[in-house]
Design goal:
InterPro entries: LRR_dom_sf. With 212 residues, this protein is an alpha/beta fold. It has helices at 66-69, 160-167, 184-194, 204-209, and strands at 8-12, 15-19, 36-40, 57-61, 80-84, 103-107, 126-130, 149-153, 174-178. It has a single domain (8-209), classed as Ribonuclease Inhibitor (Leucine-rich repeat, LRR (right-handed beta-alpha superhelix), Alpha-Beta Horseshoe), CATH 3.80.10. The chain contains four helices and nine strands.
């Protein structure tokens, strides 16, 4: 099926943005050279992502992305993963096969209560978490031996014990929580527990733009 311009935007440099459509197996060939893929409210068939092992950056946005989220563990070269506004997503899959992952951004997952196991993600240096109002299990952050920076945004209830455990690591260098609607004392308690200066604000697009 031929895509309309508003559905499929080839951004050049091996980057494609696909919006509000339904992909089919016939689209796989067009994506074989893509390394940075953004899917916004886009449905994918079962096993679709499995056939794109060259992907390095994947940005999944919107309620339709839940099906794709379940298959991200099949992407061995993935260095950066962002998942946002998948409101009906109850849990994340096991991500421990993504041993090349360096960046993880989770935002607006309203039903998520626990972070997935991440012990094998030995290259994961940066984690962004935001608008995860039900998230109560933060424990897997302590298993990230390479974690350097943690950025929080908007509505959250950070586990202060987890932040304190991160704070004793010399390799943990940056923490910030941007939360204008949260009580200042709550934010201050988290900042005190983490005891680190604010890192630079980074999104998945920044990683792509700064590549060498």
């Amino acid at each position: 099926m031929k895509r309309q311009p508003e559905d499929w935007r080839d951004e050049g440099d091996d980057s494609v943005w696909i919006t509000s459509t339904k992909l089919t197996d016939a689209d796989i060939d067009r994506l074989q050279s893509v390394r940075y893929l953004t899917l916004l409210d886009t449905r994918v068939p079962d096993g679709f992502l499995d056939q794109l092992p060259q992907l390095e950056l994947l940005d999944l946005r919107g309620a339709q992305s839940a099906g794709a989220v379940r298959r991200v563990a099949a992407l061995p070269k993935l260095r950066a993963l962002a998942i946002s506004h998948a409101r009906n997503l109850i849990e994340l899959p096991n991500l421990e096969s993504l041993t090349s992952l360096e960046f993880l951004d989770l935002y607006g997952l309203a039903q998520l209560v626990a972070l997935p196991p991440m012990r094998e993600l030995v290259r994961l240096r940066r984690v962004n978490l935001g608008q995860l109002g039900r998230l109560s299990d933060w424990a897997s952050l302590t298993s990230l031996t390479a974690l350097e920076e943690l950025e929080l945004n908007n509505r959250l209830t950070p586990d202060l014990d987890v932040l304190a455990q991160l704070a004793v690591r010399p390799s943990f260098t940056g923490f910030m929580w941007s939360a204008p609607d949260e009580p200042q004392r709550k934010v201050a308690a988290a900042e005190q527990a983490a005891n680190r200066p604010k890192p630079q604000h980074v999104r998945i697009r920044d990683l792509w733009n700064s590549r060498t």
